[in-house]
UniProtKB/TrEMBL annotation:
This is Type I restriction enzyme S subunit. It comes from Alkalibaculum bacchi. Keywords: DNA-binding, Restriction system. GO terms for biological process: DNA restriction-modification system. One of its GO terms (molecular function) is DNA binding. The lineage of its organism: Bacteria, Bacillati, Bacillota, Clostridia, Eubacteriales.
Amino acid sequence: MKLVNILDVVKIANRSVDKFSGVKRYIATGDLSENIISSYTELTYDNRPSRANVAVKTGQVIFARMQGTKKVLLIDNDNVDFIYSTGFCVFEPSKAIMSDYLRLILNSDLFQKQKDKYSKGATQKAINNAGLKKIQIPLPPLETQKKIVEVLDKAQELIDARKEQIRLMDELIQSIFYEMFGDPVTNPKGWQVCKMSSLGLFKNGMNFSSSDSGVTLNCLGVGDFKSLYKIAQTELLPTISLKQIPSEDYMLRNKDIVFVRSNGNKALIGRSVIIYPNNNEVTFSGFCIRLRVESDLVHEEFLIQLLRSDSLKNKLLRNGRGANIFNLNQKMLSDVDIVLPPKELQMKFIKIIEKIENQKSYMELSLAEHEMSFQSIMKASF
């Protein structure tokens, strides 16, 4: 298959936002999660930041310029009227390349590795237009492009279907929680209440340098939370290199609960997972906070479901004046009220959801197989 320079078949579209009245939705690079718009900020023309200045057209494809960041979005009728960050590059495809094929190319390892290789910058590296001129992509005939898109989109449909089944199982667990315990914020059943600080010890994650070397460990970072609430296969987590083994405080144990403390994507703030490293040595990043439960009044598996409830998350992420917050700290978490139903009722709940978890594990295994198949097709295609 012939290779062409990407700028021979696409044009970099630089269109600033025209003056508008009322409010528009602004999409920063952090608002894309798994190539889906997961959050947005509503802005007027006059109060928008300088970076909110990219306008788009249907059929264009945008991607994040920043090194090590794979965020790609096809512009369609649903998102064409939004404002986008200058952190995105906008490609307008020529007649030689389909928009959907371009979307897949930009998601491929072939493109992402070249993008990272040619990224420049003193602090935060990103690809500039000069770097884009060096990137080459495969360009088959349009009919072949169409077939590649059909095969990969079908594979993606299978992945999406499995994800939806898993989401519905999570939703069922939350429904059972509310039925048994009520809303954990309004506490209609009148359970005993305590501050989260009385349940255990908090610890911020560790900061490290990419230049360190000597000891390799798995590390739980913000990007690993996704929509999960439990992580057991910690050997699949990314690894980091350190000069020496961290102190015990920085190593995760079974049933530790970890929160997202801060992140460029405000939709991730406050997310939490319960982790089971077993015999694996795992640490956690400085953008996270760990809670290690020491109280006998609460079971960790009950607590993680409570923390995932919409009402508690909404309360946690809004300050006393009703405004959204963009960073969590230990004090904020310490002050959260936690309902404490009888321990035997907590255990009954855990036994009920174990059956759902078993079914969910099968779905997650199937999802992993579909994702591996998708990646194999991607590599064969590009």
